[in-house]
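TA notes, week 10

Several of you asked for a full example with nothing omitted. So below is the full record: structure tokens for the whole chain, then the designed sequence directly under it. When grading your own attempts, check the secondary structure regions first.
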């Protein structure tokens, strides 16, 4: 039969890489707890209308990239989530999550976009997101930026720069929009076909074009910052004041826009030069009008999303990948008949928090001691637990260090092994 393989752009995550994912996720969970953000988990499949209304019809995601289908049972139009902010907002509205005030939430999980797979861009990709719902002050925008900055520091990432901008409010963007259209119409011949199509639908997206031929026209375009009113300027100032007080460097990038229509006021990206065209590892901003767009009451909100694959790729580039946790011990068991007693001992060790990998039997029985010791060494285990015939006859186990020759070999009574395991955890 033909061998089946994974869908292109949807990748298996295998050991030892999966352990690095877990290490990164553990750091994030610890960070979120310190900032008092709570975990939320939403469905992978959402109504298609949620993303059409939330992200905007004239966006690359909605027009080109969503995996959408019709439910064969009831004809409902459904979509694999291409991002999760809209889903979190939908959940908050549906369950009256903000009834008693604002909520700080975070999530981790897969997203799906139908695009050409390349380094750092996949059809199934994973994001960590943080959303602060029900807060209007710029200090919460800054809090989220501080949180991301703290993560880069804890991970040891050094080539990450913060870019910041303000998209203002709708009336300010409308004025800027009219000026943009007039500018680009005056340079119509310099626009590519995609830009011409979007000119009157979403001219702000032209500023995000990567077409080299259009860059001079884009650089000369009116800046949204010049159209901001006093309130929008104060909001941006409140963000930069907090960043300045905390020593977080940033660059105001007046051309920074976001790919979803729901953003207003603060937008930001953390970027690196080490990943080429996929250099954005975290992006976010304020989206005070999204709740209304998907059927809720007016509610201020701000958040960001981190691309897990890109962060791990950057860690790899810098030689700073999280280390997969080592196995504490490898159980060498030369006799099948001793397995019940051995496994009873191992369960006691595992209950104390010690990780133990046991050599398994085959149809022919157990492998030789020499072969098992090779496996023990290859496993990365710190110790070998030898349950040989002599040891089992005396109700004992021999503990042999595999990584540190200075640790003397010792033979323990089986009941003493649990105490050894506890001491091992206390010195880990």
């Amino acid at each position: 039969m033909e061998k089946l393989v994974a869908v292109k752009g949807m990748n298996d995550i295998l050991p030892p890489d999966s352990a690095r994912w877990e290490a990164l996720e553990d750091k994030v969970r610890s960070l979120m707890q310190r900032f008092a953000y709570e975990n939320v988990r939403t469905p992978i499949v959402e109504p298609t209308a949620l993303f059409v209304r939330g992200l905007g019809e004239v966006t690359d995601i909605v027009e080109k990239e969503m995996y959408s289908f019709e439910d064969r049972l009831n004809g409902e139009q459904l979509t694999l989530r291409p991002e999760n902010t809209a889903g979190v907002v939908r959940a908050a509205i549906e369950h009256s999550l903000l009834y008693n005030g604002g909520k700080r939430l975070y999530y981790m999980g897969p997203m799906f976009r139908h695009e050409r797979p390349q380094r750092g861009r996949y059809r199934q990709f994973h994001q960590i997101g943080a959303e602060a719902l029900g807060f209007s002050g710029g200090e919460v925008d800054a809090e989220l930026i501080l949180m991301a900055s703290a993560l880069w520091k804890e991970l040891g990432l050094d080539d990450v720069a913060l870019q910041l901008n303000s998209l203002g409010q709708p009336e300010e963007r409308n004025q800027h929009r009219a000026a943009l259209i007039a500018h680009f119409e005056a340079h119509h011949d310099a626009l590519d076909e995609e830009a011409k199509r979007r000119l009157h639908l979403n001219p702000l997206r032209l500023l995000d074009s990567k077409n080299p031929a259009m860059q001079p026209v884009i650089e000369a375009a009116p800046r949204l910052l010049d159209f901001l009113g006093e309130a929008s300027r104060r909001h941006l100032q409140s963000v930069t004041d907090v960043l300045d007080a905390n020593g977080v460097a940033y660059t105001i990038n007046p051309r920074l826009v976001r790919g979803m229509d729901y953003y207003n006021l603060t937008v930001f990206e953390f970027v690196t030069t080490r990943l080429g065209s996929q250099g954005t590892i975290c992006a976010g901003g304020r989206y005070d009008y999204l709740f209304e767009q998907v059927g809720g009451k007016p509610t201020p909100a701000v958040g960001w999303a981190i691309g897990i694959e890109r962060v791990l790729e950057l860690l790899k580039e810098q030689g700073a990948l999280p280390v997969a946790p080592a196995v504490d011990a490898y159980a060498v068991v030369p006799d099948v008949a001793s397995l019940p007693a051995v496994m009873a001992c191992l369960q006691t060790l595992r209950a104390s928090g010690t990780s133990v990998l046991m050599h398994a039997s085959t149809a022919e029985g157990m492998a030789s001691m020499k072969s098992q010791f090779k496996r023990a060494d290859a496993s990365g285990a710190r110790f070998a637990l030898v349950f040989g015939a002599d040891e089992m006859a005396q109700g004992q186990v021999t503990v042999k260090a595999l990584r540190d020759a200075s640790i003397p070999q010792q033979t323990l009574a089986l009941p003493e092994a649990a105490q050894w395991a506890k001491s091992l955890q206390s010195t880990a």
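The first strand starts at residue 38 and ends at 39. Use that as a sanity check on your answer.
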